[in-house]
Design the sequence.
């Protein structure tokens, strides 16, 4: 079953460029599991390559290939091979990450007869420029989807050009198959952020001002005294190392039985510390946290391997039983989005003693000098260190915390 918007796209999307933009979970991608085979069969036997472009090879596999395999089976949609190709409905299709221009060298110089694009606003613009010159047949066609970004984003400029484009813009309410309770929850979770305008209303709006508007406007919702120890299943510490104008920061995050996260304790030191003093402060912080909570892991900024080894050695000397490893370091905007969702869902809390974290969340800003992409301000005027250490502490659990991530 297709929604009215999907039915219209199925009938009318016959241009060189056929684009669906708008809200998350609005039905933009689902229809394409049926559209892609239709397009492939239409150009079967004609000269040129078939290509699927996405942010990375893994996102293509997760967003496109696995759902299509579930629909049609491996007989019609194969797994990816070592050369980044798969078989779809009897035809070879190259599946390439578009976040880096070098990753599409395999199709550079070749004609492309059909291309599907996933998460277009995450691509390297050089990849898109290359694609425009490769769709050089009279029958070449492109289908693609994306969530909106800044109004100055390079892809928005293309959409506003006089190219041969068929375009649809979706809101969350354009998907009649969603559970109304889910929609209401999603709207609440994105309230107070730029993500509401983009992921709910499907608008191209700039990221401006305070990042965590909900926290800044209503800190009393999140800063709570009553944190019974029995509600904390385990705790994880994130570590960001200082240098130059930045500071060393530790943040201890608890994971509750109800699916929330809680900033339990934090540390920040702006003065330059020799490694021995840093190690002593780290040991003291871990011991302090272990007195109240089960601390299982410590995830550190992977850029400082020497300092991480020092923390490991210090923990071993003091017989502190924690695993110390590298932070995952997801993209900053993914970490921001996750924390905004947890705040909107009422699943983030902070102990009042965590003044470094409270100040960091209240003062975090979007950088006004960047109008084509979303960049968090990091010029030494705000406390980025505590934000990084907080995010390192919970980022590995994001898929478990947020369904459908």
Sequence:
């Amino acid at each position: 079953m297709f929604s009215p918007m999907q039915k219209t796209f199925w009938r009318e999307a016959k241009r060189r460029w056929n684009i669906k933009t708008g809200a998350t979970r609005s039905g933009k991608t689902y229809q394409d599991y049926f559209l892609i085979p239709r397009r492939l069969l239409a150009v079967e036997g004609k000269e040129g390559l078939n290509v699927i472009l996405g942010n990375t090879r893994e996102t293509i596999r997760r967003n496109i290939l696995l759902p299509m395999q579930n629909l049609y089976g491996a007989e019609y949609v194969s797994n990816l091979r070592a050369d980044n190709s798969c078989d779809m409905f009897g035809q070879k299709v190259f599946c390439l990450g578009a976040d880096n221009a070098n990753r599409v060298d395999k199709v550079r110089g070749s004609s492309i007869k059909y291309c599907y694009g996933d998460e277009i606003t995450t691509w390297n613009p050089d990849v898109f420029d290359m694609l425009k010159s490769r769709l050089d047949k009279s029958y070449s066609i492109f289908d693609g989807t994306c969530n909106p970004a800044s109004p100055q984003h390079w892809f928005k400029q293309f959409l506003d050009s006089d190219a041969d484009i068929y375009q649809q813009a979706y809101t969350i309410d354009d998907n009649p198959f969603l559970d109304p309770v889910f929609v209401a929850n999603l709207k609440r979770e994105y309230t107070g952020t730029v993500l509401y305008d983009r992921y709910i209303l499907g608008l191209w709006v700039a990221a401006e001002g305070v990042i965590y508007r909900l926290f800044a406007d209503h800190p009393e919702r999140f800063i709570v005294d009553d944190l019974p120890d029995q509600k904390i299943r385990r705790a994880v510490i994130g570590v960001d190392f200082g240098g130059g104008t930045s500071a060393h920061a530790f943040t201890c995050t608890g994971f509750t039985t109800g699916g929330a996260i809680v900033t339990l304790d934090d540390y920040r030191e702006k003065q330059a510390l020799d490694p021995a003093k840093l190690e002593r402060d780290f040991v003291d912080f871990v011991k302090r946290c272990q007195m109240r909570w089960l601390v299982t892991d410590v995830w550190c900024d992977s850029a400082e391997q020497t300092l991480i080894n020092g923390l490991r050695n210090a923990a071993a000397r003091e017989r502190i039983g924690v695993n110390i490893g590298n932070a995952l370091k997801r993209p900053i905007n993914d970490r921001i989005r996750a924390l905004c969702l947890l705040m909107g869902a009422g699943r983030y809390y902070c102990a009042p003693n965590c003044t470094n974290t409270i100040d960091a969340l209240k003062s975090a800003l979007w950088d006004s000098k960047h109008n084509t992409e979303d960049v968090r301000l990091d010029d030494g005027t705000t406390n980025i260190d505590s934000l990084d250490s907080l995010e390192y502490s919970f980022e590995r659990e994001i898929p478990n915390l947020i369904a459908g991530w």
